[in-house]
Design brief:
The protein has 215 residues and is mainly β. It is 0% helix and 59% strand.
């Protein structure tokens, strides 16, 4: 309030002083981890600063993601900066790919990339249907691929090999929803054959006994 007085007479008026309007000069986006496994969650922070490089508190920030598959997601999609000018979100994806995370505030945006990698198998278990068959016949082989939590892994390439003159068909297969890949083994010779399944450098094996006809 401003008051003016003259000869004992006064008058006054009020003036409203508002806080200066700040504009975001930059939005810096960073991820706690730039490379994680599919199915895990990446924490992302957006730091908003003004033209003086000072953090801007209480500023609305919008998060968005883009990826080739479109399966990536961010939560929450909007947040408000704290006293340090930071807002936070989480990003996840079920596909092995690179995801771009963008944060926008007051028309200014910034982004960063996160690489989601396919999980690695922890164990390969190999089993046969019979275990003992006559020479010239076939036995079915199943390779079960599991992760570090013991859960079956679908979509994993598995290579099969055998010892000696025995053969496997097919020599490679992809696991189904149960984490299983299949092949058949045959041998014209009466002998014990070892069949091995390999997935991402992890292997497992089992023996098949081929016996002579009439044994």
């Amino acid at each position: 309030t401003v008051t003016a007085s003259a000869s004992g007479v006064s008058g006054s008026t009020g003036i409203q002083f508002n806080a200066p309007t700040q504009s975001a000069a930059s939005v810096q986006v960073s991820a706690a981890q730039t490379a994680i496994t599919v199915g895990q969650t990446a924490q992302v922070s957006a730091t908003v600063v003004n033209t003086q490089g000072q953090p801007m508190a209480d500023t609305p920030v919008t998060f968005s993601v883009s990826s080739a598959s479109g399966s990536a997601a961010v939560s929450p999609q909007s947040a408000v900066t704290n006293s340090q000018g930071q807002a936070f979100a989480s990003v996840n994806d079920q596909t092995a790919e690179t995801v771009t995370v963008t944060a926008s505030a007051s028309g200014v945006s910034g982004s960063t990339g996160i690489q989601f990698n396919a999980p690695s198998p922890a164990a390969v278990q190999v089993a046969t249907v019979s275990g003992t068959v006559y020479a010239g016949q076939t036995d079915q082989v199943t390779a079960t691929i599991t992760n570090s939590q013991g859960q079956p892994m679908a979509g994993i390439q598995v290579g099969f090999s055998v010892t000696g003159p025995a053969t496997v068909n097919p020599q490679s297969a992809v696991t189904d929803s149960q984490g299983q890949a299949f092949t058949t083994i045959s041998d014209q010779t009466a002998e014990t054959v070892t069949v091995t399944a390999v997935a991402s450098g992890i292997s497992g094996s089992a023996n098949v006994q081929f016996i002579a006809a009439g044994s």
